[in-house]
Write a structure and sequence with these properties.
Layout (H helix, E strand, L loop, with lengths): L12 E2 L1 H8 L3 H9 L7 E4 L2 E5 H13 L14
Antiparallel strand pairs: 1-3, 2-3
């Protein structure tokens, strides 16, 4: 089964390390937030490879900057 994901012209994929580095959190905290639905689900490239569109990372950073970010709320997920 093949799933196609189209990126916007100026978008790119980032791996988990870059995502949690930009958030300033640990790897363990990052994966906890992903599994709890606080952060968007990754796009699976293979069984062991996951990525996120940079636009989704920037959406999360914008929510943090605007004060909308609440890590206790599972409603931050921007994967819609």
């Amino acid at each position: 089964m093949s799933i196609t994901y189209r990126l916007a012209k100026n978008d790119r994929f980032v791996r988990a390390k870059e995502f949690y580095y930009r958030l300033g959190i640990s790897k363990a905290q990052f994966y906890k937030w992903v599994s709890n639905g606080i952060l968007p689900e990754p796009i699976k490239l293979s069984q062991r490879s996951s990525v996120w569109p940079l636009s989704k990372v920037n959406d999360v950073l914008a929510k943090i900057a605007s004060g909308e970010f609440d890590p206790k709320s599972p409603n931050l997920n921007t994967s819609a």
